[in-house]
Amino acid sequence: MNTKVAFRLNPDNGFSLLSRICITLLVAGFLMACNSDDGSDDGDILTPNGSLAWPIDCIPGKTCTNIGYPDINNTGQAFNCGAPGYLGHQGTDIGISMEQMEKGIDVFAAADGVVLWVFDGKYDKCPDNNLDCYAPPAGWAQPGQSNGYLVCTELGDFCKTGDCCCFWCFAGGNVVVIKHTGIPGLFATRYDHFKTNSITVKPGDHVTQGQKIGEAGSAGNSSGPHLHFEVWGTGYYELADPWAGECGPNRSSSMWMYKIPWESGG
Ligand SMILES: [Zn+2]
After folding, report:
1. So what's the architecture of 66-128+143-239 in CATH?
2. How many A from CA of 247 to the centre of ligand 1?
């Protein structure tokens, strides 16, 4: 394979790979109760500049809980100086109950875009004894293949620069990636852990903000039903933190369209 080097890895996973292969492995899915704040308002518009809509049909602190914030700069602190989902967590985890999952909680496109990549069909009640809940053998990663909780894109124009040839592996089991254009600072969004066969979009589909793309589940490397929502700012796997605060890498303005209820404290 003629590939470029770009390798990013969760540090607690002892994966080793040929250095000429471009892979991202995301180990997503640990939920921690880092914010149990249930005081809230109802999500008033904060700024018309934020581009992201809330990506799941639940209200933080009311019908979804255990928000695990990103720690994309590996400081051990979320944007608000509290604990992140876990050290180095790359997205925002939004937890729901198993009961909610069984009823069906919709996941929405956070912004208009085109579906770039989809994987569906993995078992969705992890952790469990099912092989889909486990890490594949060390060093395993194959373009276009899946093994255990890892699902990998084909080898293609997925390098950070947008050229050939890279592929990515995700630990989210059932995964959707949506590419956005024309929104400064927003390249793509990624959604993990869907309920089995609930994904309603396919690569190439144009989606609009708020459109249902599937239902939340607990597929992949997951400790319970939740959505892992990840933002890529300027290129493939260039992680961005949608939350703004004094301890985050994002100290300017939030990428959300709405004032999120728990930001108001109380
Ligand atoms: Zn996560």
Report:
1. Distorted Sandwich (2.70)
2. 19
Q: Which residues contact 228 (CB under 8 A, 6 or more apart)?
A: 28, 29, 91, 92, 93, 172, 190, 191, 192, 193, 222
160 CA distance to ligand 1 centroid (A)? 21
Locus of tokens 């990663």:
141
* 163 CA from centroid of ligand 1 (Å): 27
**Tens-level pLDDT at each residue, the chain (266 residues):** 333 323 232 322 222 222 223 333 333 322 222 233 333 344 444 444 689 999 999 988 889 988 999 999 999 999 999 999 999 999 999 999 999 999 999 999 999 999 999 999 999 999 999 999 999 999 999 999 999 999 999 999 999 878 899 999 999 999 999 999 999 899 999 999 999 999 999 999 999 999 999 999 999 999 999 999 999 999 999 999 999 999 999 998 889 987 665 443 33
CA 166 to ligand 1 center in whole angstroms: 23
Q: How far is the CA of 1 from the centre of ligand 1 (A)?
A: 31
The answer to whether residues 264 and 92 touch, using CB atoms and an 8 Å cutoff, is: no
